[in-house]
Amino acid sequence: MFIKDKFCAAKRNITDYLFMNTNIFAKYFILFAVIFLIVLTVLGSSLFIIVNNYTANERTKLLRTNTSSLAGTVENIIQLQDMNKMYSIEKVIICETLSTVSQSIEADIFVCDLNGNIILCSERADSYPFSGTLSACGKHDNLKIHTSIIDSVSQQGEIVEKTHISNLLYFVVGCPIISDGVTIGAVFALANTGVQTLVLEFLRIFIISAFFCLILAFICIYYLTKKMVTPLQQMSNAAKQFASGDFSYRVKINGSDELADLGRAFNDMADALDVLEGSRRSFVSNVSHELKTPMTSIAGFIDGILDGTIPNNKQDYYLEIVSTEIRRLSRLVVSMLNMSKIESGDLEMKPSNYDITDQIIHILLTFEQKIENKSIEIRGLDALRPTYIVADPDMIYQAVYNLFDNAVKFTNNGGYIEVKLTEHNTDIEVSIKNSGTGIKAEELSHVFERFYKVDKSRSLDSKGAGLGLYIVKLMIEMHGGRVVAKSDNVETAEFSFNLPKQFSPIYKKEKK
Fold first, then answer.
1. Cα radius of gyration (the chain)
2. How far apart are CA 340 and CA 54, in angstroms?
3. How far is CA 500 from the centre of its chain?
4. I need a surface site. Which of 87, 152, 186, 308 has the fewest CB within 10 A?
5. What angle do CA 3, 5, 9 make, to 5 degrees?
6. pLDDT score recorded for residue 41
7. Cβ neighbours of residue 331 under 8 Å, at least 6 residues apart?
8. 421-480 pLDDT, tens per residue?
9. CB 231 within 8 A of CB 267
10. What φ, ψ does residue 425 adopt, rounded to 5°?
11. Residue 358 CB contacts under 8 Å (≥ 6 apart), including other chains
């Protein structure tokens, strides 16, 4: 329940993160899309301004060139007395020239006198001689250039500016018409200040290109966002599965980026939790079984004594069985307490310098009766030499005791137990080998797991709880050592461990 509660909380946290207000995919997609639109808008606006200014400058240059050229043409044809609307073939030619140039540069070009009256324009190019005057022009007859503009042209020799003419804003380029050193009029070119044709064409092309770029960008953003969010969605689904007790779900990993690393870490966590959950279930099941069996026996024998089912002459026999079962329960409880202290880091280590050979011999003496009962031969004692190490004597005693207890249990009658102690430069190796039934290869990697018991062929003692070898592994590793199991054939089994001569704990956990 503890693991399940933890994952319920984790699931809620991940779900709240992924679906707060809206899902994370929509958030990232909208965010990237808005950023792209903003960048595209700023880029388009900047290009539009640059192109528009460039076009305006080029257009102004073109207007200046043409007005200057037309002013020179008019100067060669018209004199002061001709600055009026009277018909002449020369004026018609000038009007036709004005018409041609106006169409080519998309501007309104005309000639006015010093009073600002427009006398020659492109619309008067079709005038006929019988009228005596040039034809009327509905566009320019009511248009008059302000005298201040005429004065500016006369004084400056040229003007290029924006100004209002008949309440409309124009680009105005003017050049004076000079005859015999006297200014007799001016040629003006008016151009719309709005967006020019080239700019509009550029804008049209840019919008079409931007449209297709947006489509491509949205497809790419969708793909990238989906790729980034999918592992998070899978983790959310995994958290839901874990909360329901199913630890089989795994995140699919593609690539080697940070999200892939996160996915791998998540899968590693799922593997560890799967093992932990299996271990927890196994722990509950095994503890329940190990406690239930002796308690059932004890209750049955006690009830038999109390109700008279067991006769008086048999009571001592069954009380001895009850005593044995109680001691078994006591050993189980002590083993579980030691295991809990070791795993939580609460077991305090007290290292000292002592002779491990002497300790091994003392432990063997505690099994003297059992060894004699099974006629077990002890080999290797004559080769043992005093060997000193710095370690916790009580912990090493418990570890060696458990190994000898295991060896005595599974050694066949008339078999042997062989003890070896090898001293190296920095560590020592203790090996305990016994005859009897060996351990299958597929079980060697599991013998040090808690509550694990080998198959029936080796379960000669059904009263073990399966914690002895697990505690051996914990205690040896707490000293920076390593313990292994070997079974070279079906008739022998060997357990050996290495210990550094100097105390170097690596397993101790921080207290919570």
1. 52
2. 82
3. 42
4. 308
5. 115
6. 85
7. 465
8. 999 988 999 999 999 888 887 787 778 776 666 544 444 444 445 677 888 888 888 888
9. no
10. -65, -45
11. 386
